[in-house]
Design goal:
8-stranded mixed β-sheet
Length: 314
């Protein structure tokens, strides 16, 4: 089998610049100046510190309107009313291009309710929601071979309801691949999984190609935490779920999930990030702009690679 031709990264970046896309500092600059990585992303994320998921939804809509990004709202019934009092969930869908097949980029925006309040949900999963919105900004004006849909899923925390609804309303013949982003707020390593499902080979090849081209530290998981990718897997859509964590935590998490009792870690060991999720500690203080830029690069480059090689194979 002939290996697919990859668009040289220098040409890809040049095309983004010509299209007026603002590139993060990780592309062509020193990464030490965090204020130049995805300018304003931390400010956008801070706006998501709200007391309800409905309020988070309203903030996201406001940001999209401020940036001139077209969107549609996809409402669905809450089938798990025992876990959340909201009767209706709302996905936010942004569409770019008009090709014969779809590439989907998604992240959930809802935060988890705590026994004594509401999580700020900055790590899980506000940062990823802001990142995929920046991916949407980058796609404006680009010439794409596929229709790309950037989706902010609601009600992931109570059973993947938003992604399940999205998949149920889409034409299965159109869906070519899905990239999910969850927990991407701090660290210097890219994690992705769950690997090994038949039909996902091309998506994982694309992820590894991006890791190689960008000289990123990447860790592939066979067993991997559940997120909205599972809804696409159930529908037979090629998919991958991506995260960013400190490198040591990435390897510790791999041991916890894949080596299990043979991990060599102390019984009950949890990484810092794992202890942060679904807790009052999931705050803006946990977020690093460099990590957001890393996740942005991983998602955008993998997406554009898939757009190129899938078009060549049609």
């Amino acid at each position: 089998m002939v290996a697919p031709r990859r668009l040289p990264m220098t040409l890809l970046l040049a095309g983004l610049v010509l299209a007026g896309v603002a590139l993060p500092a990780a592309w062509g600059m020193q990464a030490g100046d965090s204020t130049r990585l995805l300018p304003g992303a931390i400010d956008d994320l801070g706006r998501l510190r709200q007391e309800s998921n409905d309020a988070r939804f309203e903030v996201l809509i406001t940001i999209l309107e401020e940036r001139g990004i077209a969107y549609e709202v996809q409402e669905f019934a809450n089938e798990h009313a025992n876990r959340s009092p909201r009767p209706v969930g709302r996905n936010i869908v942004m569409t770019f291009g008009s090709g014969p097949r779809d590439l989907v980029v998604g992240a959930h925006f809802d935060a988890v309710a705590l026994p004594d309040g509401f999580s700020e949900g900055m790590v899980d999963n506000g940062a990823a929601a802001i990142i995929v919105m920046r991916v949407a900004e980058a796609l404006q004006g680009l010439e794409l071979s596929h229709r790309v849909r950037v989706v902010l899923f609601d009600m992931e925390e109570i059973g993947l309801l938003g992604s399940r609804h999205y998949v149920s309303t889409e034409d299965g013949e159109r869906a070519a691949a899905m990239l999910n982003l969850d927990v991407s707020a701090a660290g210097d390593a890219v994690l992705f999984g769950p690997a090994g499902n038949a039909g996902n080979e091309l998506v994982y090849d694309a992820a590894w190609q991006t890791c190689a081209d960008a000289d990123l530290t990447c860790v592939e998981f066979a067993n991997y935490p559940s997120s909205d990718d599972r809804s696409f897997q159930a529908a037979g859509v090629p998919n991958i779920s991506i995260a960013v964590m400190p490198e040591i935590e990435a390897h510790q998490m791999w041991l916890i999930m894949n080596a299990r009792e043979s991990s060599g870690l102390a019984p009950g060991f949890r990484t810092h990030t794992m202890s942060t999720l679904h807790s009052p500690n999931d705050t803006l203080d946990e977020v690093q702009p460099e990590a957001m830029a890393l996740a942005y690069r991983m998602v955008l480059e993998t997406l554009l690679y898939l757009d190129t090689i899938l078009a060549e194979g049609q």
